[in-house]
Design brief:
The protein is α+β, with helices and mostly antiparallel strands. It contains 14 helices and 22 strands. The chain has a 13-stranded mixed β-sheet. Strands 5-6-8-9-12 form a five-stranded antiparallel β-sheet, with helices on both faces. The N terminus and C terminus are likely disordered.
Length: 486
């Protein structure tokens, strides 16, 4: 099948929060699709993958917007005097203040080129969040993006937000906030460098390629810390950075924290027949705005059923779909000509990113969630020759569907030294208690990364057992239609 794809004091006391012991100081401050069949309540249905060709706070915000910092870099380390240049860093209150071409040039270079491009750090995605009212001051996400210039040339940008809560981050620090408040010190607002509402790994300091980009990176890292202290905030958090950025941040005093997600890896599969054992077909459908309205109703059904918060507005889906075109893949299920469920994905340079899922209210379709979110994503990745499917947050249940555990990262800068020490101890205990060592154990059990791993053969291609078994699993799982992020 061919598919065309056109975010002090020395005295102290002990505090127990959520079974964790803290030690704190006593005081401080055309479209193309693939299709397969499933059985709904009223007969046969069809599932398709679709491609779319307070005054104090106000004073603090004013201070931050006026923030600027300069540093000298050397464009030629062998000839420093003649190559001395000045870099200026400033804060902008909206991504619209930065030309999309300049932002995206930084994002492409930081990703490692178009072949590894991450769509979530694009100007189109982030501006859709702002323009739709999803990630704005009123929702606790005030944009404070950093901009680094040399003369008129933009060298780097950093997606940064002033947060008044900890929602929509997928790296949980609520107990830290509780500890601060119990101690009598405010935890919010705080700075967060991330993609709002999106647990997807990627670069956070977006640098243009240049012979002196390492100097720019370290200057921006220092500027982030300086801005946090200048703004009298408790902390700065960098969530889901790339592994390379993670190591650079932690070398500069940021506390390291790790997590687990489950990703599917394409081991050079040439087609999906051996993996999925499905009959595929092509449909050509012209999509209209009403289909985004349908998906928004699915999304709201999920958030309502799981007592969640609908972070994204209806306008976000329309704007994102309009701006990002064929980077959007929406898997939809229809029955009797009516859309009944959908799963939203974005297409990156080498990865398919699964994001949101939902279905009609008061409906139940056995196994449809797994089909739409996991198996259709695998099919699309193979057809598009993508290396990875990232299925979002949550879920050991993904292992038996071919998705294996990988490490995710976050970095945390706490201004107060005593709090920093206490939270560092918390992170160490958390890492040991939650069994982060599970990843190599699971990989060993499944035989992944070893040539001696148990395999079975389909035709001329060998597949690990956990992928082959998916056909059997499809007929035996229960519905999990309420999962928000796959």
């Amino acid at each position: 099948m061919a598919i065309a794809v056109t975010v002090p004091s020395s005295s102290s006391f002990l505090l127990l929060i959520n079974n964790n012991l803290f030690n704190f100081p006593s005081s401080s401050t055309t479209t193309t699709s693939s299709s397969s069949r499933w059985r709904g309540r009223r007969g046969k249905g069809r599932i398709s993958a679709l491609f779319w060709g307070s005054k104090n706070n106000d004073m603090r915000q004013e201070q931050e917007e006026q923030f600027s910092l300069s540093s000298t870099v050397y464009t030629d380390l062998d000839n420093k005097e003649s190559s001395k240049r000045v870099i200026n860093v400033s804060v902008v209150s909206s991504i619209s203040d930065i030309p999309s071409t300049e932002w995206d040039a930084c994002a492409v270079d930081a990703s490692g080129g178009h072949e590894k491009y991450n769509p979530f750090i694009s100007h189109s995605f982030l501006s859709s969040l702002e323009h739709s009212g999803s990630a704005v001051k009123e929702t606790g996400w005030t944009p404070h993006h950093l901009l680094a210039r040399m003369d008129s040339t933009i060298l780097a940008v950093v997606p940064l937000y002033l947060k008044t809560h900890s929602y929509g981050e997928f790296v949980f620090d609520h107990s830290w906030a509780n500890a601060y408040y119990s101690y009598g010190s405010p935890y919010y607002p705080k700075f967060q460098s991330c993609v709002p509402f999106t647990p997807v790994t990627g670069p956070r300091i977006l640098l243009r390629n240049s012979p002196f980009k390492d100097q720019v990176f370290h200057f921006l890292l220092s500027a982030l810390k300086h801005l946090t202290a200048h703004s009298h905030l408790s902390s700065l958090h960098v969530t889901f950075p790339s592994q390379d950025d993670f190591h650079k941040f932690t070398q500069q005093g940021f506390l390291p924290r790790i997590g687990i997600q489950y990703h599917w890896k394409n081991r050079n599969y040439k087609n999906s027949n051996g993996v999925l054992l499905l009959t595929l077909s092509i449909m050509f459908i012209y999509w209209k705005a009403k289909h985004w309205d349908s998906f928004y109703s699915f999304y709201r059904n999920t958030t309502d059923n799981k007592w969640g918060t609908p972070y994204l507005t209806r306008d976000f889906f329309h704007e994102m779909g309009s701006k990002m075109g064929d980077q959007v893949l929406l898997v939809v299920a229809e029955e009797g000509g009516e859309l009944v469920a959908g799963a939203l994905n974005l297409i990156g340079g080498d990865t398919l990113f699964g994001r949101l899922w939902g279905c009609q209210p008061q409906t139940y379709y056995p196994s449809l969630h797994f089909e739409a979110c996991y198996y259709q994503a695998i099919e699309a990745a193979i057809e598009l020759n993508l290396e990875t499917v990232e299925a979002g947050a949550q879920g050991e249940h993904k292992i038996q569907r071919g998705y294996l555990p990988v490490t995710t990262y976050s970095c945390h800068y706490l201004v107060d030294e005593e709090f920093r020490k206490a939270i560092q101890n918390f992170i160490i205990r958390e890492s040991s208690q939650e069994g982060k060592a599970l990843i190599p154990i699971v990989m060993e059990i499944l035989g992944i990364g070893r040539t001696s791993g148990k395999q079975r053969t389909l035709g001329k291609k060998e597949f690990p057992d956990n992928v082959i078994r998916k056909k059997e699993i499809r007929s035996g799982v229960t519905n999990e239609s309420d999962w928000l992020h796959h």
